[in-house]
Amino acid sequence: xxxxHGFIECITxxxxxxxxxxxxxxxxxxxxxxxxxxxGLGHDIGCTSRKTVASSSISTKAQEPNLIIAINAFxxxxxxxxxxLAHHPLYLEGFGIEDLKTCEQIFSSSxxxxxxxxxxxxxxxxxxxxxxxxxxxxxxxxxxxxFLHNNYVQALRIIDEYTPLLNEFKTHKSLTDDAFLQWREDxxxxxxxxxxxxxSDAIAVAYIEELENSSVxx
Length: 218
Fold this sequence. Notes:
two-stranded parallel sheet; mainly alpha
């Protein structure tokens, strides 16, 4: 687990067992203890993680400090649309331009340590990974001011570039900011109702099937 600035907050060893829910719960529990309330968390399967946390022993602990579990930006576009409307960082306040993919960068960087630890003993396996991630944090700290500056400039550029276009669109269509929020709610409601087949469609399908059966029998 890492913060939006790229600093590693906790690491879990999954050398043999693979990705189990208990590791995610342990990481969330650690984050709540260290960082406190009003935290946001991105996960590839954020919707599933929400249910897992809600049914776990830390459910109350996660609910009281207003923990938000979202889905990662790029993963979300290949995900269920109803889930995106509720959990995608594009629609959640407080996530800014964050894509929630920092851990993917960390995992990718750790590949360079594979050649050193592939046949190492357990002690050196842990030692080299610890050295690698410690150096990662030092590098991120060294680049922190530049990282914050670039993100700030990017955010200002997005605001300056798209605000006039948005205002022009709202004026042309006679819209307010509340309309955009309402569109998301309307889409979510539509998709929820779409999951259930309308009675009129069911009757029409049954009627066609009966006609087909009658024609076959005749």
